[in-house]
Amino acid sequence: MDRDRGGGLDVRIGIIGDIHGNLDALEAVLSALDADRVTRIACTGDVVGYGAQPSACVALVRERAEAVVAGNHDFGAVGKTALDYFNSAARDAIQWTARRLTEDERLWLSSLPPAYTCDDYQIVHASFYEPLEFPYIFDMQQAAASFSRQTGSLAFFGHTHWPCAFFDEDPVRHAVQRVLPLDPPGRVLVNPGSVGQPRDSDPRAAFAVLDLDKRRITFRRVEYDIAAAADKIIAAGLPASLAERLSLGY
After folding, report:
1. What domains does the chain contain, in order, with CATH numbers?
2. pTM over 0.90
3. Is residue 9 pLDDT above 60, yes or no?
C-alpha cells in the first residue's frame, strides 16, 4: 500500500473510469485527487474512444493508476471487440483512435485484464457476469447477475456512465447519493460515473473516492473546460455529436 505525502498509510483510493480520450476532463479529475492528497487510483476502463486525445489519456492512466481493466472501447480500438457492437459514431471514433495509437499503446490496451481483484476492492468495466461480453448494469436484475460472479465485498464498474450503487440484498437495492456508507457489511457494486462523457445530465467530470478507514464512498464532480474538449473533437474530424453531447451531460 502506498504512503501519502504526510508519511502515513493512504487509506483513500480514487476510482475513475470511462475517460474516453477526454484529456481535459481527466486532468481536472487528477488535479482534484491531488488536491485531496489521494495517491492511489483505480480505473474501470474505457480509457479511449469518443474523445480526441487517446494517447495522452493512456499515458496518464498508465502513470497514475495502480489497476486498470479493459473497456469495450479499449478492446475495440485494438481489434479485440468486434466493431459491429458499436453505434456508428462510436465506431467512427474507435477507428479514428486505432489509427493513432502507437504499437506500445496497442500492446498495453490489449493486455488489460477483464477484471481485477486486490485486498481492498474489485473492478470490472461492465459486469462480472460474462465481462468480455460487456453487458450493461442499469437495473436490479442485471446487478444480481454480476453479484453472482463477484467474489469480494466491494466492487466498482463503469460502462453505463451513471454514478450509482447496488447492494446485494433480498431484493437487490439501488442507491444514488453523494456519500455512501459501506456498513453494514455486504456485497456492494458501485459505478463512479464517467470522467470523460457523463450521461446523467450533469456535464461535470465524475469520479469517486473510496475511504477505507471511514468505510464510505464519496461521489465527486469537478468542472473542466468542456468547450476545449469539444473543439478538439471537431478539429480532429470526429462526429460532431460527440462534441455536442459533452455540454449536455448525455
Report:
1. 12-247 (3.60.21.10)
2. yes
3. no
